Amino acid sequence: IGVYHVFENGVPVYGPGDLMLHGSFAIVIGAAVQAGVEVLVATPTGNMLQGLGLGDPMLMPHAWASWTPQRRVTLSASIGWGVMLGRMSDEMMMTIVDPMNESELEWKAAVDVAIGKGVHAQAHADGGVPIGEPGLDRVIGALRLGWGNRRVDAAAEVQTAFAGDPFHIRGLVETALHF
Is the pTM of this model over 0.85? Predict the structure, then answer.
């Protein structure tokens, strides 16, 4: 669950976003290639009127693959579908913290470089293409520095929007626990 501090038109907005849970299953596990599927579910816990949540649950199944051509470099990609399980009306606002279309084809491509002792740097681009109307194409580029082990990942990221998103630049600090 994200906790946000956003300035919109000079007014600060604080609060939690939508709770997101996901599970991933590796189908191919090789020395250099891995591939699998994952499903992410977003629950409407964020305040939709403040732009911190979608107001409806969202389901996002994806297929993913990664290739490690050399020990320290990994290339990865994913593609999937994101669909809102409720129906947005024209009067409803989209979340300002993680814009999404009501139904979209989602994608991500990344290159990750291991620096050492669990530290890695990553550059990635991700986005969405609307399925049906209305909708906006969206593309975000990011640079990320992270640290991780088998149970915990932590990272700091700087993102910029190239298309369809309501921000120019934003920062992200993230911690993930693996069970």
Answer: no
4 touches 14 (CB < 8 A): yes
pLDDT at 92 over 50: no
* Chain length of the chain: 179
> Which pLDDT belongs to residue 163?
87
Peptide linkage before 134 cis (omega within 30 of 0): yes
Distance CA(134)–CA(145), nearest Å, equals 35
* Statement: residue 93 has pLDDT above 90: no
| Residues linked to residue 142 through DSSP beta bridges, in sequence order | 124, 159
pLDDT tops 90 at residue 142: yes
Query: Residue 31, Cβ neighbours under 10 Å: how many?
Result: 6
Between the CA atoms of 143, 42, 95 and 106, what dihedral angle is there, to the nearest 10 degrees?
A: 50
- 50 in helix, strand or coil? helix
**Amino acid at position 111, single letter:** V
- Of 44, 26, 46, 23, whose CA–CA distance to 34 is shortest? 26
User: Per-residue pLDDT for 60 more than 50?
Assistant: yes
From residue 131, give the alpha-carbon distance in Å to each of 69, 80, 126. Answer: 34, 12, 16
Biggest CA-to-CA distance, the chain: 50
